[in-house]
Automatic annotation (TrEMBL):
InterPro entries named in the record: BAH1, SPX_dom, Znf-RING_euk, Znf_RING, Znf_RING/FYVE/PHD, Znf_RING_CS
Annotated SPX domain residues: 1-168
Claim: Transferase is one of the keywords in the record: yes
Top EC class of this enzyme: transferase
Matching CDD domains: RING-HC_BAH1-like, SPX_BAH1-like
Organism expressing this protein natively: Populus trichocarpa (Western balsam poplar)
Protein name: RING-type E3 ubiquitin transferase
Pfam families according to UniProt: zf-RING_UBOX
Length: 339
């Protein structure tokens, strides 16, 4: 089956589901745009013929070959890339807000959880959550494939590399779905489920695995299309397994303590107070601290699977926090009494 049909089937299959409000890649429409471009004859094939005819005329043929491997296509670029960028960013936004909501239900405790469950009309939460997570993984997978396929098609039609280059643009805009920290959170969510629920989801859960005791702690997610994703769980600052992890907007993971020191803020002030000039120590991007994601599911996973290590780090973090607070107030008092 052609991917276009598979994708349509996926979208239609969801009509009863709850992804209706979520954005999707307008694969069919974008495909139409490319088809129109092809039929209007600006594609490389027709140009090549022209080129051969004009072989004698060097000036003209070099002009044409420039058009062939063109940097831009006047017919579809305006619609194609701006539309795809808009869709991709909607999808990324939709994915993160859905996962955020789902995981909030999971980690919410006590009375808050009870209230949330009331609002959810007493839906059986474990089952529903697992099902929703499965659906979100499929959502990411299908749309990621759709974006890849349509960009490949663009390059084929235009004999260009613009489609491929667009991928790095998506990464720079932080809308590349497979790099979303929410995917790691979702993976950790499943790994936390493991053994609690079993039954019909155990097979699905087995697509997620983690190796936390090796020299390189990693989480591995195998997507439904058998793409294998590996996420390193080592903090690039302390070189240990991340503890109380935060993902910066660029996607890089650090311990809260390490991220705070890199951003020159104190633990109790929090990453939100970081300056907009503060840069990620790995990729040097600025302004990545204010919207950092607190990876609660990943923290829970580490707490469960590496409890000794987790407790050790917890104590160390607590001690450092206290020390920072004490020093802060000491300096304040000294200032106030005019030392
Ligand atoms: Zn075109
Ligand atoms: Zn660290
Ligand atoms: Zn970074």
């Amino acid at each position: 089956m052609k991917f276009g049909d598979t994708f349509m089937q996926y979208l239609q299959g969801d009509q009863t589901g709850n992804l209706v409000k979520c954005a999707h890649v307008e694969y069919k429409r974008l495909n139409e745009v490319l088809k129109n471009c092809r039929s209007q004859g600006s594609a490389s094939a027709s140009c090549k013929n022209e080129q051969q005819k004009d072989e004698g005329n060097n000036e003209l043929s070099s002009g044409l070959s420039q058009f062939c491997h063109c940097e831009s296509c006047p017919l579809c670029d305006q619609i194609f890339f701006s539309e795809l960028m808009r869709e991709a960013s909607h999808i990324a936004g939709c994915f993160s807000s859905r996962v955020r909501h789902l995981l909030h239900l999971h980690v919410a405790r006590g009375i808050q959880r009870y209230k949330l469950r009331l609002r959810q009309c007493f839906k059986n939460d474990q089952q529903t959550m697992a099902e929703e997570g499965r659906m979100l993984i499929e959502y990411v997978t299908m749309n990621t494939i759709a974006i890849r396929k349509i960009l490949k098609k663009y390059d084929k039609v235009h004999c260009s590399v613009n489609g491929n280059n667009f991928k790095s643009k998506m990464q720079a805009e932080h809308i590349e779905l497979l790099q979303s920290p929410w995917l790691i959170e979702l993976g950790a969510f499943y790994l936390n489920f493991d053994g609690i629920d079993g039954g019909e989801f155990s097979e699905f859960c087995s697509q997620f695995s983690c190796d936390l005791n090796g020299t390189e702690p990693v989480m591995t997610l195998t997507l439904p299309n058998s793409t294998k994703l590996e996420y390193s769980l080592t903090c690039a600052i302390c070189l240990e397994t991340v503890f109380n992890p935060y993902a910066l907007s660029c996607g890089h993971l650090f311990c809260k303590l390490c991220a705070c020191s890199a951003a020159f803020v104190l633990m109790f002030e929090g990453l939100k107070t970081a300056s907009s000039n503060a840069k990620c120590p790995i990729c040097r991007e600025a302004g990545v601290y204010t919207n950092a994601v607190h990876m609660l599911e990943l923290d829970l996973l580490l707490k469960r699977r590496c409890n000794e290590y987790w407790k050790e780090r917890m104590a160390a973090e607590h001690a450092e926090d206290e020390k920072q607070t004490r020093e802060y107030w000491d300096s304040r008092t000294k200032y106030a009494i005019g030392y």
